[in-house]
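Key idea: predict the complex, not the pieces.
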Amino acid sequence: MAPSELASATDPLAQSKGWPSIVADWSSDQRAFKQVSWGKAMMWIFLLSDTFVFGCFLLSYMTVRMSTTVPWPNASEIFALNIGGNDVPLILIAIMTFVLITSSGTMAMAVNFGYRRDRAKSAILLLVTAVFGAMFVGMQAFEWTKLIEDGVRPWGNPFGAAQFGSSFFMITGFHGFHVSVGVLFLIIVARKVWRGDYDNSRKGFFTSRKGHYEAVEIMGLYWHFVDLVWVFIFAVFYLW
Amino acid sequence: MAYAEPAVVDHAPPAEVPEVELYHAKTWLTKYVFSQDAKVIAIQYSLTAIAIGLVALVLSWLMRLQLGFPATFSFIEPADYYQYVTMHGMIMVIYLLTALFLGGFGNYLIPLMVGARDMVFPYVNMLSYWIYLLAVLVLAASFFTPGGPSGAGWTLYPPQSILSGTPGQEWGIILMLVSLMLFIIGFTMGGLNYVVTVLQARARGMTLMRLPLTVWGIFVATILALLAFPALFVAVVMSLLDRTVGTSFFMPHIVEMGEQLPYGGGSPILFQHLFWFFGHPEVYIVALPAFGIVSDLISTHARRNIFGYRMMVWAIIAIGGLSFVVWAHHMYVSGMNPYFGFFFATSTLVIAIPTAIKLYNWVLTLWRGNIHFTVPMLFCIAFIVTFLNGGITGLFLGNVSVDVPLSDTMFVVAHFHMVMGVAPIFVIFAAIYHWYPLISGRMFNQALGLFHFWVTFIGAYLIFLPLHYLGFVGVPRRYFEIGETGFVPESAATLNEFITVVALIVGFAQVVFMANLAWSVFRGRVAGRNPWRAVTLEWQTAEVPPGHGNWGPTLPVVYRWAYAYSVPGVEDDFVPQNLPPSQVKAADPSARAAE
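Result:
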């Protein structure tokens, strides 16, 4: 490498645009992603790995749905709520999806206010996000209860293929677990923002590392991922 | 071929990565037990992996005793034999090889070789080890449960893995599945650390194309693991639900002992697809770190730069990518669409191309090199030979028409033991001997090392070459005893006895190896700095063995690639990666004339 090239690779302003800039980043020293912190890189790679987990779950669901010889239950009938004497198909799931997607919006606002050092607004929006998340899990618990009352079990159900209950409880349970973990961490991050941990570089209890407002954004990455996964679960489970 | 190094510049870009905030341990407990230092974690990982690996070694002796001398040992029942097979396979593949290469060598070498003070998230790294230890303990606990450990075979294929005819159906299979889930969670924590450290925390001047191939191998293997273990995780969760809750993900309608079971409608083939989507990349999760380590070791001990460095890197990446599209070659006899077999046979054979590139490059590195027959070098050469032998039988088994008659015979056992058992274990031995002076500060005993090498190397061939032959004459794998099976010649029994005797001898040679390491920690000759005269950063630390934070007050700056051996016109025959070009001493022309 000629010295002039080396010098230009170190100066972010002198860098080329588009694909050549990607090549320059990857062929440089120290970091492959120049603007990305360690925490953010780690979360992205974790989410990639987690995508494979959810991908395998959903593919397995599709496979057992095809392998079973018993007819698959009609999703829009089973997931209907009786409101005012009428069965409204998919109403609960529509509300759940709406709540979860709304929580992505409040999360994005929390990140924005965090970077503006508006502690109060950021913390409140994080808590609002957590409340939406908890509402989602609560409605999921309601839905599970209703299905169990109707006789749906992981090993069988009166409406058709046993794999319906198996995959439903497994996949929504695994996703609900992700949401619940997210709610817990949202509360922790909100507390840290409220207390000003990220302003006075207070060290973490376990890691003894200084915190940054970027933690809010990393939290957001996870949260948006959980929402995105839900869209796929919604599509292949409730609409198919 | 002349020494061809990428140009060296006496200039390094300014630092852009902030210093790592290290956790400075104050008590003995946080320094050596709950340590956040990658080097301590590496040793914890390695010792745990070797300890559980010894259990698997003893299980293999028991299996060999049964195969060599059937109906002699009354304490080996058929059920016991299947439990030995299962636990031996699972422990060796996952809890020993994966953990030792990635958790052990990865933790020790990545921060040192890329010039970082530690992994990027030491606390998560520490958790990774403790969850791995928990996984090992849960697995080991299954030996003490009613019914014993699972006897389903290491592939754990349902339906049989969870039906009552299989040993360990009560508790063994549950603990096995839970242990695998824990392992995957623990590994993911470590794996994220390895990947981010390589990508985002390298030293000044350390570009990706200056990384030692060891780091490349471990890095790509970790990515494979992060993308392949999810499939195993899902398979394990669904198996566990089938076993405990009574779901039917993998369970078809099935009649057991004349009784219709409540299962029905599941897909056993789905498990096989998920398992092998993990299982095949797993082969390369073990092999790629071995490839990388061998490349660095033969370069150091032959005093030659690695031949075709860039090609070696791209071959590692190509092998990693291809390993995700070959999994169903493990399922030729499972009942797939024949066109699938055609596709997977083709993709399998394509892997031979990057692998052959690597083999040729190793040989060309040795070609006219100044080969020092040290113990690590001998193990590396043994690896190259063994990997070639094992790889060639892989071409047999990758073809559907050849695989079908050979499937489920000892030929398959011999193949995967050569390519994935013996070959990577040789690299583990080479790596332990090579880095032992760095880790302990002392030299191992050469004579015992040579003894260990020759017994292990010759013994491995005496065990596994006859096993190929047994497979050809039709001896099936996983059989408790062959008995009077018409198609198996009686001579197979004699050969089995021979293999068993050799296996026991090779097994006991490992005791010499461990005694050598243990004795040398206290009594070995003090190795001093850089005894192999290597160029990579881990040998250039301020203190030996490297201390907390690795580098002392100043971080290293890298000026050249990791293969500056026998550089022409330079006084020494090697130039460390972090030696500024202005400080490289030119060779004395009069000394050269006297040569």
